[in-house]
Design goal:
0% helix; 39% strand
């Protein structure tokens, strides 16, 4: 059974009636002090039962010594989710930080019942371990300033009384949001907005001349925005300046991938006739020229670039690690829709999906499934 949707640039993840009343879907609204934007709290009901560590939905590893995970919380309610933290190397295992209040709308019911509306990329925690963002697919974007113990809904950039919704990406402690246009005219395109850690006010950073931005992809290399009909645009300066990448590079056969400050990466198909085959291409001059560093008879679905010639590649559902031209397999995470990876450095790498959250601290020679660790609360 695959309950999911593709990654941010491929797509994203998609109650029992008798439990609805127990889920506590109430949110308090603070008074609006002068000069501050009013936002809703999203606190859980203190009477909700503790949920065991469920199925992995989303995760974030901002540093080598702290990992965060969002899991299902069926004991609370079918569409609820719980937040956990784990310190690799410790003996305490996973600690439950927060059980989110039931979202206003559950995820898609695919015949097996409602499901939390959480995507593989929904959770992003900052390296300080205090700030972060979490996005419901159906119920808006939340922010935390205390390590996930409490959360607030962010206001919409165009209406402070409404919750912010849309595709998100995070780059250098800023949250970027694609706000969908409220009309279908070409004269009313989607807009891009930015807010910082602990902030609730937005700054518009829409690329000049954009015709239809729908998705964002962020990495250490900067921020990508796919502009419908004109290719892709890229910024490494908090949206202040955007550069256009040649249309031929991202005309549908190649898609931007997670990169580094020195290397931009792309996942490419080698045929537009439905035949399998793909390659990974990289650029070291901000997208002006490209070279192929990996070819495969399978379709390349995702790429994550790391330091000094290290890459994680998902092709045909099988993940591989490329280290200085040498290719080795990585643990199976159980499907391309929820697959995601992150390099902390050359030796420390995280890889996550429904079947587990894996970590290596020796450059890929051995992998440890962190999901198998003891849960303590």
């Amino acid at each position: 059974m695959n309950r999911g949707r593709p990654l941010a640039w491929l797509a994203a993840l998609a109650s029992v009636v008798g439990l609805l009343a127990a889920c506590g879907n109430e949110s308090d609204t603070d008074a609006n002090p002068a000069g501050q934007v009013q936002v809703d709290r999203a606190e859980p009901d203190s009477d909700l039962p503790d949920s065991p560590f469920g199925r992995l939905l989303s995760w974030s590893a901002p540093t080598a010594d702290r990992v965060w995970a969002v899991t299902t919380a069926e004991k609370t309610c079918a569409s609820c989710a719980a937040l956990w933290s784990y310190a690799p190397g410790s003996t305490r295992g996973w600690k439950r930080v927060h059980t989110f209040a039931e979202p206003a709308e559950a995820g898609q019911d695919d015949g097996y019942g409602p499901f939390p509306p959480v995507s593989a990329t929904s959770l992003v925690m900052a390296p300080d371990g205090l700030h972060g963002w979490f996005r419901w697919d159906t119920d808006g974007i939340l922010a935390t300033e205390d390590g996930g113990r409490s959360w607030r809904h962010l206001p919409s950039p165009q209406d402070p009384d409404e919750r912010a919704t849309g595709e998100i990406a995070v780059h250098e402690d800023h949250l970027y949001l694609v706000l969908l246009a409220q009309c279908e005219s070409d004269e009313c395109p989607n807009t891009v907005w930015r807010t910082g850690l602990g902030e609730s006010e937005w700054t518009e950073v829409t690329p000049e001349g954009s015709e239809g931005i729908f998705e964002l992809s962020a990495s250490d290399a900067g921020l990508w925005a796919e502009d419908l009909g004109t290719g892709a645009v890229h910024t490494s300066r908090d949206g202040a300046d955007w550069e256009r990448t040649p249309l031929g590079r991202f005309g549908g056969l190649c898609l931007p991938a997670d990169g580094t400050p020195d290397v931009l990466a792309a996942a490419c198909q080698t045929s537009d006739q439905g035949e399998p085959g793909g390659e990974v291409e990289v650029s070291e001059d901000r997208g002006r020229t490209w070279r192929t560093i990996h070819s495969t008879p399978r379709n390349v679905e995702a790429v994550v670039a790391g330091p000094k010639g290290h890459f994680l590649v998902l092709a045909g559902g099988q993940g591989v690690l490329i280290s200085d031209g040498t290719t080795s397999k990585v643990p199976s995470t159980g499907g391309l829709h929820e697959w995601s990876g992150r390099f902390i450095d050359e030796q420390t790498i995280y890889l996550g999906g429904p079947r587990g959250l894996f970590a290596t601290r020796d450059g890929g020679r051995t992998w440890d499934n962190l999901i198998s660790k003891k849960r303590v609360g």
